[in-house]
Amino acid sequence: MTELMRLDRDGPIGILRFTQPGKRNPYSIGFVEDLVACLRQAERDDTLRAVVMTGGDYFSSGGDLVGFQSEIAKGARATSEMVDKVHDGGRAAYLFRKPLISAVCGVAFGAGLSLALSADIVVAAEDARLCEVFARVGGCPDTGSSWLLQQRAGAGVARTLVLTGREIDGRTARDLRVVEECVPAGQVEARALEIAREIAQHPMFGVQTAKRVMRASAECSYLEALDIERDCQSVLLCAHDFPEAMNAFSEKRKPQFTDR
Prior knowledge:
- This is 2-(1,2-epoxy-1,2-dihydrophenyl)acetyl-CoA isomerase.
- The protein is of the alpha/beta class.
- The chain is 50% helix and 15% strand.
- The protein is built from eleven helices and nine strands.
- The radius of gyration is 19 Å and the shape is globular.
């Protein structure tokens, strides 16, 4: 636990809480370092089967522009290195092996929105405010938002949101397929936890493999996706859980999974 975030747990579900909602959880270098550390901790904990990521009343207002100024003043090389370090947060979230669900209330701007979109599933409050704010401040997308937004909503919607810097609420984000679900603000975390528990009841080796397959196939052709699926499914068919499921079906009993 740090002053910026902490990793709680609710049974088999980890809850990664950003703990500076009064400051709207700015995406600072310190925030990134703690985010990477917490995700690694959650990944190493075999008793955690999924993680919900939440900022409470405010998910994240985005990049710490004031804090970044000292590095920017050093020139292009230092600035490039700083941006790459900021990107470590998105990399850690996107590559997280377990199911990751974002629970978005308040604001998710810039890098904060990128972080939310790096999860597998996003649950947003109806009155949440989402914005690709980069154009408003003379910048271009970073922290993976150019790719993540196009993957979710398509190129046309992504270009519109990026180039206009338009702010949208949770309902509009759902309609545009930027987020998967939209609920009243008071229900966001509960709904995210509900989804996490639904996922957590399944054999984890299969779930984590399925996540890897979905990530990989999103970046390739149909024929390449078939190859990815073949290679991963062949392993699962020979593991413990899939054969156990087939035996249980034949014997008309509940399967006894061991996550091996």
